[in-house]
Amino acid sequence: MSPSLASLVCACAIAGLFYLGRDESVHTSKALWLPVAYLWIIGSRPVSVWLGVSPPAGTTAPLDGSPLDALVFGLLLAAAAVVLIRRGRRALTFLTANRPLLIYFFYCLVSVSWSYHPEVAFKRWIKAIGDLAMVLIIVTDRQPVAALRRIFSRVGFLLLPASVLLIKYYGNLGRAYTPDGVPMNIGVTMHKNILGITVLVISLGALWEILRLLHTKRQPSRGQNLLAQATLLAFGIALFGLADCSTGIACFVLGGGLILATHLRAIRRRGPARIHGLCLMILLIGGAAFLLGGEGDVAHALGRESNLSGRTEIWAALISVAPNPLLGAGFESFWTGPDVEKFGRSLPNYWHPETLNEAHNGYIETYLNLGWVGVCLIVLVLISGYRRAARALKREPEIGRLSLAYIVVG
Q1: Can you give the pTM of this predicted structure?
Q2: What does the buried/exposed string (b/e) look like for 326-361 if buried means 16 or more CB atoms within 10 Å of the residue's CB?
Q3: For labelling alongside 362, which of 22, 193, 349, 383 has CA 20 to 30 A away?
Q4: Within its chain, how far is the Cα of 246 from the centroid?
């Protein structure tokens, strides 16, 4: 099949998924397209990259970024602010009920003051607020659970088929190479790890929706919705294989297993005790594997080397050069400071520090930027979220299942 014909087939498939996934019984706000557009961008590539627009001469891309991307995110954030001002009471209620999240963002703002480039860190903090604003648009919708379902569908229906198309027929866009020349499939994203995260989030949402539809016999358009979600999940599973993303596969199995387990009558009848026990067992097994020296066996089971494809070397080198173990380098500032040179000198010769701009570990990345204070605040957010998800399993089991899966995976 020629690339042109494949593009036409893909476009028809995307249109077909949107058609099959529509639900006339649900009436969500038009503002929901703001987080959809936002997720289309951060789940793929910046607008400037898609359009091939280079930063102006004399600017430093890692520090200054792209004016076009700043404009796009600024417009999305401004539009989100207008929506949230109109929903003021609902938005305020949600924020005051989630104090750990507010404390975390406030600490991130304070950390800007000791970052290497405060003006750059502040811009990045403003952009990070966009995450919170888009979440607020979803949860303050008149039908928040239905809005969340539509988010998964609208984002997944475009990004997942397009990723398969680029990988299969547009190798110059859908494939890339690691610094040591190993090919990787990246789809619509900039790196296979981002593709793995995008596919993981959407695939868990598709599985959650499929199980809901299977248990809802009288919903209008149930059959066509099931077909759309099953197709979306099939795209996700196919992309896990194409991306060779072991972490994504392991997390999908873990999160999907939790969603399935919470549907079992034996789990539901015993209530929170069984849920806590199941989650504790998962955490203990994972923790014991590493604490007792079994990380090599875990890595081999995932098709990786015992050093997790060299990541353990990166982690050891980064931890040794952390500028401030308690407070960190400042919000998203470690990779813009002089500590990166020390990090490069402490790496083995076959690593190329100039190509690294992340820790490949969310907790270590937080430690580098925000120190132990930031890590503890993240843990506080996760604990608070877990408690809410466990309580939601009683009152609203549908959203409780999905929340629990994402939190435990996190």
Answers
A1: 0.88
A2: ebbbbbbbbbbbebbeebeebbeeebebeebeebbb
A3: 349
A4: 16
